[in-house]
Structure formats: structure tokens, C-alpha cells
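Notes from the pairing session

We agreed to fold both candidates in a single pass and log them together. This is the raw record for the first candidate, unedited. Please don't reformat it; downstream parsing expects exactly this layout.

Candidate A
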Amino acid sequence: MKGAPVPKGNVLKVLGRLLGYAKAYKFLFALIAALIVASSVLNVLGMSQLRPVVDYFDSVIKGAQNFDYAVLYNMLLKMGATYLCAAIASYTYSRLMLALCSRIMKNLRDDMFITLQSLPVKYFDTHSHGDLMSRFTNDTDTLREFFSQSLPQLISSFTSVITVFVVLFISSWSLTLLVVLMIAVMLVTVKAVGGRSGKYFVKRQSDIGRANGYIEEYIEGQKVVKVFCREETTKRNFDVINESLNSATSKANAYANILMPILGNTAYIFYALIAAIGGILVINGLATKGLIVMFLPMTRQVSMPISSASQQVNIIMMAAAGAERIFEILDSKPEEDNGYVQLVNADIDEQGNITESDARTGRWAWKHPHHDGTLTYKELKGEVTFVDVSFGYEENNQVLKDVSLYAKPGQQIALVGATGAGKTTITNLINRFYDVPDGKIRYDGININKIKKADLRRSQAMVLQDTHLFNGTVKDNIRFGKLDATDEEIVQAAKIANADFFISHLPQGYDTILTADGANLSQGQRQLLAIARAAVANPPVLILDEATSSIDTRTEAIIERGMSELMKGKTVFVIAHRLSTVRKADAIMVMDHGEIIERGTHEQLIEQKGTYYKLAQGLYELD
């Protein structure tokens, strides 16, 4: 649920927005609140019925009236019925609150996950994945405690204090003044001690996210840590983070732990004062014994909710910190998409006339509405043109400088150059992971910014150097490229990628379960599945970013022969360090510091005897 962004550190506004999630269940929430109030009021009323019982016995002892079992029975029955109703109300609201809490947590997690899907790639490049995970786990757990424990306790405490105060004031306004003084002292104590505790609980929540991010990062990179013998360094770095977490937790708990004894002893002091003063009033005939017997436990009934509520302050502060971190995700600016050109199924006759089709035809066209109200269709072919494109991930740090290139349908364009030369950036711009501030990129003659991002990306497939496989079967991972692909299409794609042989020898073949990002496969096998995933999508544009870097030379040659069929009629961008991968490319772009310094076929570049020639002869190496 989106809401107005709240100022950082504004606890009340954060909690107010958090409570907005209960609005969807306002009738259920109102019922729960009513039951909490009823339970609190009934408990106080049950306690107030001690007075007539004690006064009745006192009058019998004094001989003012005869003892009657029926009278006593009726008083005790009334008291028992009151407490029974209170117990039923308490049990009912507890069960309903758990159900409400579960629904709210589900909605929060849904909103976070949906929001993450709408965020640009840049967001994930600049945020620790472990910290993001912490918001789904630790931070939502603090909100669960807030809704299931703190919120009901606060409503109950407030109701109890008000009800007790009213009953006490009606019974004896003079003794009630002592209770008011006790409440004032306790509230000042809560503010002084609880406020300091809350500050450290907020810091603790932030440190947990930081620690989780560090742990996840170094678990994933454990092999690198061991290869370079950096165990001690990583332990020292983690110790710094963990010490910060420990310090915040210790200080938070220190203040939290001393609060209860202070409040408890304060309550005992006033309890003794009320007992002493009440005794004096009874001796002097200014109060009945029943009044004092009722007053003393009700004094405890006032102090207990305040003490209980003070305990919830820490949970509330943690919940506010957790909610703030969650709202930071929900308030993040989603990926902008002002495109209006769509990709549609098309029927194309022999004269080249294009009509839109509701059925899958195997051919595609760009549906292009114009400002004058006309509508045109253009066949999807995969022609890509860069015109004077400049780009930087950060301001004042350009990665590409006035890059111009074109790729005709069916051409294979190879990008070579040192790390950081801008090769991957070009592919990131083709699929609009990032938008171009200067220059233009045209796709089939259409400005790429006019094409809807989802439609643009459906017309392409990428195979990255760092493959990612999902938990599920081999079949499901290949089908990720085309969700409605048949089993036959999946097998055919695997054969094109030369993955069918090793898949067939897995324990359950295509139904083998992959876990932990395909940890039960070799790096080369994982890469083959990624290529098969792109093959089953069968788009007009392929982007291969070091796609064969993890495969041995022999397997690479076999894959290239298999993929030659896949590449027919398609525009292919290949990023590679191995020159053997790019020799057959229609055009090779040699990049250096964001600029194309050489371009041509393998033979043409060899004849120029420039940078590419030196690479081919082993006189120069890519970083």
C-alpha cells in the first residue's frame, strides 16, 4: 500500500502510516478493539465487586445483619460471570488479532516484493542484497510483534487506566489524588529511561540489516575468501560490524531492563502509602474496609498497565525503525517507462502488409500510435542503431563517449576491449536497463525511448557471464525464457545449446531439481542452461555477454556450431575476451575508455595492424 512519504525519524507518522494497513480490515479491527476494551473494562468491574463482598462480611461480623448464603452466592456469581466474560473477550480478540496480523504481514510483503519488481536495475546495484532481505525478515518480524502484542497491550492498558481511574475517583477522590501522583511519576520515568532505550533499539535494527548484508556477501564469496586466505581479514571486519550491533543491543537492553524495577518499586511505595492512609481513614470511620480492599488491587491495576505499556515502547521503537526501512523500499521511485510503442503478434502477407493478430503467429510487429491519431505497424527485425550516444552511471563520470554503431538484422556484432571499456554498458542501454541522456538509440528505426520496456525486452534475450538459476527443475529453468514453451521446444532449445546430453545423464533428466543457484552443476553446465533459456525464447536480438567464458574451448566450438542455426536472421551482440569467439562476426568494435577506436571484420582489422592486430598476435592483452 503506497502512502505519503514520512519524514525520517518521525515515529508517530511512521506508525500512523503502518496502521493504515489495518484500514482494509477496519470492521475486523474495530471488533478486536471493542473486545479489548470490553475485556479491560470487565476485569476492572470484576475487581470493583470485591468492595461489596468485603463490606458484607464486615457488616455480618459487626452484627449489623445476618449472614445469608444466597446473598453471598449472588455476589460471587456476579463476580465470576464478569471475569468469565472478560476471559472470553480476551481469548477471542487474541485469536482474531493473530489472523489480522498475518493478513497485514502478507500485504506488506506483497507490497515490498511488487515494488522491488518495479524498481530499476540501478537500485539493486546500489543496495546490499542482504540488507534488502533483512527488511523482509527481521523488519517484518518487528511489525508482527507490534500488531500482535504491542498494539493490543496499549489499547488494553489505556482502557484499564481510564476505567480504574473513573471507578477510583467515584469511590474516593482523595485517595485517587495519590494514584494520579503515582501515574505522573511513572510517566516521567518512562519518558526519561524509555526514550534512551528506544534510540538504541532503532540503531540495533539498522545494524542487523548491515550485518545480514555482510554475512550474505561473504557467504557467497567464500571461495574467493579462502583462495586469497582472507579469513582473518573478513573476521576482523565482521567483528567491527558485530561489535556495533552488540553495543546498540546492550545499551538498549540495559535501559529497558532497569525500567521495570524502577516502575515496580515506585508502584510498591505508593501501594504502601495508600494502605497506610486507607487504614487511617478506616480507623477514623472515613472509609469502609471494602473500599480499601478494592482500592489496593486497583492501584496495582493502574501501575501494571503503565509498566506493561512501557515495555512495549521498545517494541514500538523497533517497529517504527523496521517500518521506516520497509517504507523506504515502498517509496523508492519505480522504473520510469514513457514508452507507447507495443510489440504485437502480426500477420504479414506476401506484399508486406501487416495486420495485428490475437493468436501467436511466430511473427511480430511494432504497433506505433502517432500524435495525429494514425496507427502504423512495422515488422520486428532487430535493427539497432546508436547515434552519438554518451552515458555515465554517475554524473561527471562518462562511460560511453559519442558512440555510434549500427547492426542490421542478421548481423553479428562483436564488442572487444579492456574491462571498463563500456562493452556491457552498450548492452544495458539496448534493453533500457538505463536510459540514454545524450544521443539516440533506434530499434527498427524507432527511438528506443518510445518503446515500452517490457515489449522491448521481450524482443531480446540475454546470456550473462554470471548465470542465475532458480530453485526448480531443469525444465522450469529453461522454460523461464518462454513460459508457454512445450516440452518439445525445451528439448530442442537444449539441443541447440548442446545441453541435452548432460541433462539426459542427470538423475531425473529434465525433471532434476536445481537448488542453491544450480550448485549441483558445473559452471559450464549452468552456462549451457542459460544459453538454452535464451534459445527457447527465440527472439530477433541476442545479447551474449561473455556467454561462453565458463566453457572449455572444445565445448565452445560445439556450441557455436549449434547456435549458428539459432542466430540465423537475428541481430547478435557478442561481448568476449576470447578472440576465437568473435572471428566470424560481421563487424568487430574495439573499445577503449568508452570510445570505439577500431571497427571492421576480423580480416580488415588485422590488415590495419592496430590494437586488434596486437590482440590477435598476443602482443597486447585485455585487462
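Candidate B (folded immediately after A)
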Amino acid sequence: MKPILRTFSLRVRLIIFYVFVVGAGGLITSLIGSLIVNQTIMNQAKSKVHHDLKTARMVYNKQLLLIKQAIYIGASGNTIQQCLNSENRTRLISRLEQIRQDTDIDFISVTDNRGRVILRITQPDQLGDDVSKISVIQAALAGKTAMGTEILTEQMLLNEDKRLANQAHLHLIDTPKAKVTDKTEEKSGMALMVASPIFGTDGKLMGVLYGGHLLNRNFKIVDRVWELVYKGEKFKDKDIGTVTIFQKDLRISTNVRTEDGKRALGTRVSEEVYDAVLTRGEVWSARAFVVNDWYISEYEPIKNYNEEIIGILYVGLLEKVNISTRNKVITTFIIIATLGFIIIVAISYLMTRTITKPLSEMVEVTKAIALGDLNKEIKVDSKDEIGELAFSFNKMVESLKKMRLELEEWGNTLEQKVKKRTEELAAMQNTLMQSQRLASLGKLAAGIAHEINNPLGGILVLSSLVLEDLKKEDPHRENLQEVIKQTMRCRDIVKGLLQFSRQEEGKTEYVKINDILNNTLSLIEKQALFLNIEVVKHLDDKLPFILGDASQLQQVFMNIILNAVQAMDEVGKLAINTYHEPKDDMVIIEISDTGCGILEEMIDKIFDPFFTTKEVGEGIGLGLAIVYGIIVKHQSRITVKSKLNEGTTFTIKIPVVETVKKD
């Protein structure tokens, strides 16, 4: 992706990146917004359905209360009591017919005090049947006015009115997702029923007045709810809301329509709703497929007077209505976002022009400068970052002009400067060679001093013995004295040469390792062999004191440092580190070089006397042996790690005898 973008101009790349950022942000915002809109609309739909179900329950209960009011007034009035006492059947039928017409109920009857029917206005000849098992009538026989929804068997309906039995009879229609059943038809019915006791003047129960409204194929309640809640609204010629009364799981009263436009009587509720509402007695609220479409639905159980679940009350809102609303909102949102995006892109296109124009001018000026024209200049019209860049660019061009003038002047005097520099280099080389010769001479003298010390001692002793035997007048005495004198002079010279490397007891005192290292370096780092050596020091300024001989330790460090410089062929990096190791209470000194290194099989021999890896005449192999002896005297340890062609590290560990720092 990056190589492709680099082929475009800066302006195009800025627009691409800006469009990408804004587009990605807009897309994410649109997705989140769509989810929020969808969730909000669906939650509102569920809330409306829940409210609509409450309205349906209110209408349902209101119808039941109207029946209760009429039955209670009739049972508690004097007319029915008097008619029963006087056995005035004609007047009693007239009164019951009046109640029936006033309340628009389907049946009204009277029982004796045992629950046997003694009067029916719908079927006057059908008497004597026992209705005491109906729960509301049981309550009335116990002296209470009771109302509720009851299931009436086919025979009960036939006894009340044959028309009611035909009205209740429904064939079950095979419905997707419904609970499996072998039943093919339903002959019983579900009715709103009220029963009220009839008491005589003596307060004794004379009988029960009961009446009811059959719900099967009766659309008064569901249509009333539909008018109140949905106000006859339609969506693409389809009712936006539905209301249904179920007898168990069977639709017995509904305004849900089938494909042919008929009410969907005989269809059944899904098994999921069946289990939730009829089995567990829960209110079920969710998206549901009702007959032929999806609805936002809510179901609640219908119970009889004894709190037994016998049916379901349902309302549903057509999901397409909410989906259409949601889609309109989201589409509007996307259109607005798209228009905003286009406007932002147009603005960004114009804005990038203000950024890229000065840069384009810089490119043109740069090309002119590359061709040698340093008289070009960028016009600075702003004080922002681009303006500062243009200003800096102009300053750079001015600097280039000055540099070109200086180069021209330098070219004019280059020959003289080269000659002068050559003379300086020659002088430095002579000085370096002289320093090297002096260093070599010093090393040779030290080697010779080691070799001639013992012979000189022998010559001095023998010369002194011979001198003692000569007479004072002996002519050879003067010459022998001169020999002794010169020999003693040689002895003093050798003594001075060997004083540096001689292992003496020395004096023991509290010393600072860092001071000894700094003093050692100050003695030797100005020599010619240190000209190309980079010395890196990391010295811990909180090191505790140690007990030792400063001069002997200086001899140790000097020997190791000189060996390191020689191993690097006088070109490389010398690292000196010091730190305190609390665990063993040791002062640690590490001296590392980047020299040629030591063969692994030779590391164990380097502290042996007269062992050397140098060429013949360059050393006699006593330096590291002396170092080892001094370290041992200080009850310390020295170790070596080396890697061929990479370098060597000497590590010295000296015990701390007093951790309290001394001034």
C-alpha cells in the first residue's frame, strides 16, 4: 500500500488519508447509529405492545364488570325474589329477558340452592341440569357474587342455547410451530360468566342467578381493542395491529387475517408460547410469526375464577411498520452523512491547496538550486508551520550562498593550506616516532636491567674483594677503584630501572582505587602509544576504601593497561570500570581492551614467570607474574576472559576491610 501511495502527489495523499479517516469514522458512526436507532425503535414497539396489552385487558375486564353489575343488581333486587316465592314464571322470564337485552349477554339462567337449573330464557324446556361444578356458580352457592372466564363443555352450551354450541364449534387448522396434537376440532367454548346468590327475605339462599357472554366467534372485544389502540390504521392495506383471545392455544376470537382475508379462527399459537404462557403462566413478549407475518407480540394468560389457566390474551404490532420507520430514519441518516462527507472532501481538497502550494514552490526552487541558481527565493505569506518552513528554506539558501563564497575563497588558498598542513603532519609524525623510540628504549632498558642486575652484583663484590687485597701503592688500585665506582653507578641505574617492577612489601594504608587508577592514567595516557586509544571510564564514586599499597597497585594497573594498549596495537578502545559488590563485599576493577585477544589454551599460563607471547627481545615474561604476586599479597583475586580478535578483560577483586568511607 505504501509504495502505491508514494506514486501520488502529496496533495492527493493528504486527501486520500483524510477521506479514509473521515470515511472510516463516518462508517463506524453510521453502523453504531443504525444499531442504536434499530434498538430504540424496537424497544418503543415493545413498549407500545405492552401498553396495548394492558388496554386489551382493561376492555376485557370492563366487559366482565358490565355483566357482573347487571347480574348482581338483578339477583339482589326484589323482583326475582318475589317471582320465585310466588312462582310467577312469566314475570320472572320478563325480568331476565330485560337484563339480557340491557347487557347484551348470550345466556341467563336461575338455579335452586343446590345448583340445578330451574329457569332458562334461551331454552325454557331445558331444565334440571346441574351447573354447580362451574367455579363462579360454586362461589355464588357459597354466598358470593363471582365473575370470571370459564370453559363450558359442549353439553353445557347445548343446554343453554344450541346456537352457542354451533358458535363454539371450531375445526383446528394446521399451524406451523404449533404444539403437536391429535385433536382436530374444538366443541367446548370459553365465556365471560358472572354468578350472584339470590337470598330470600329470611336471608336464606334461594338460588343463583348466572349469565354469560360466549367469546368464541364473538369479535366485540377484539374489535373494540383494535379501534381504541390502532384506530383502524393500515400498512400497505394490512392492519398494523392484531388482538386475539385464545381458548387454551386455539384462536377463538381475533382480527388476525389469513391470506384470503378471513379471520384466522382455528389457528393455534406456537409451542414456545404455549410452554411459556399456558404451562409456566408467564407473560411472553418477543418477535413472533403470527399466521402469515412477523409481529412484535405480547401474550398473557387468562385464568378462571379458581386461578386455573384456560386461555391467552394477545396483542401484536406488525413488525414491517417498525422496520419501515427504522429504514427511513437510517436512510435519512446515511443521506445526511453522505452529503456531509462530500462537503468535507470538497473542503479538504481546497484546504490541501493552501498546504501544497508553498511546497510546490519549494520543489521548483530546489530544482533551480540543484542547477546552480542560488538567487531563487520563496515568498512567505503566512506565519504557520508552512511559513516557518519557507522562511527556514530561504535562510538555508542564504547559507548556501555564503558557503559557496567560502568554498571559492578556500579553493584560492587551498595549495598554501595543504602545504602548511603537510608540514604540521610531518612534525607530528617526527614527534610520534621520537616518542615510540623513547618508549622502545625504555622497555629495552628495563629488560636489560633485569638481565644485568645479578652480573653487576657479582662484579661489584669481586672488585671490592680484589681492592682489599691490593696495597695502597699498587698502580692498579686506582683503576680498580674506578671499576668499582662505575659498577656502583651501573647498580644505581639498574636499581632505578628495577624499582618500578620490584615486588617489595611496601606500606599498607587505606586507599581509594579510583584515585590510583586516575593517577596511573595521568602518568601514561599522554605518551605517544595512547594517541589512538579511546579511554572510557565508569568509576563508581561511592566505592568503599580498601587496605593496600598504592604504589604496588599502581604498578599492577600500569602493567595491565600497557599490555592492553600493546594488544590493541595502540589503536582501539580501553574500558575501565569499578563498582562495589555487596554480596562478597568486594571492590571490583574491570580493565577491557579491543585487542587481538589470547588463545584459550594460553590463558592459564599468562601469569607464569618468563611466559610471553611477544617476539624475542620485546619482553621477558615477568610483568604479569609480578602483577599476580602483588594481587596475592593483597589477598585478592585476578581473572581473565578473552576472545580471539575481539579483546580481553582483566577482573580484579579486592576485599573491603572497612566499609565506612574515610576522608
